[in-house]
Amino acid sequence: MTEKDYVEQTLQVKHKGIFNFDELYKTLVKWFTMYKYRVHEIEYKDYKEDGKNMLYVKWEANKKVTDYVKYVIETELNVNDFKEVMVNKKKNVEGEISMKFAGYMLKDYEEVWSRKGYMKFMREVYDKFLHGYKLAEMEKELKDELYKVVNEVKSHLNLMKLKE
User: Each residue of 5-45: pLDDT tens digit?
Assistant: First the structure.
């Protein structure tokens, strides 16, 4: 069975005001492409609640690192009570945006080591004693990338950046 090892479960960015949603969306797509992630849109809902415009988007971006490890960054984006406004002849959004990021490593995502009981035991020995230092380096790399994407969003929204 594939194992999920979270490096960060809840990094959150919130902003209330005017922002360019289309540019933010493009910035995220560009960032994930630049870092060689494949983005899958899991959910997209544009709806009204109590007469207010709402938007919910969920992405799962993954990157194959080795035949054994894959990085995954989950992104949830909520825009609440928004309306379109024109600023300098450009379409923008006024409202409240909230984004959540989570990053984890999928180990044995092809389930090569999980098919038989003794192989699962061997995988745990491999992870702990033979591959442990490399897995620790990969966790750090994924965490760094997660902070970079959050900082990219904050930069786009002109908010304070996280320490890397």
Answer: 899 988 999 999 988 999 999 999 999 999 999 999 999 99
Q: Whole-angstrom Cα distance, residue 97 to residue 80?
A: 6
Domain assignment present for 162: no
Q: What is the DSSP string of 25-87?
A: HHHHHHHHHHTTPEEEEEEEEEEEETTEEEEEEEEEEEEE-SSSEEEEEEEEEEEEEEEEEEE
Can you give the residue range of the structural domain that contains 120? 3-156
Count of structural domains, the chain: 1
Count Cα atoms within 13 angstroms, Cβ side, for 42.
Answer: 11
Name the more confident of 159 and 104. Answer: 104
pTM of the model: 0.85
Within-domain flag for 163 = no
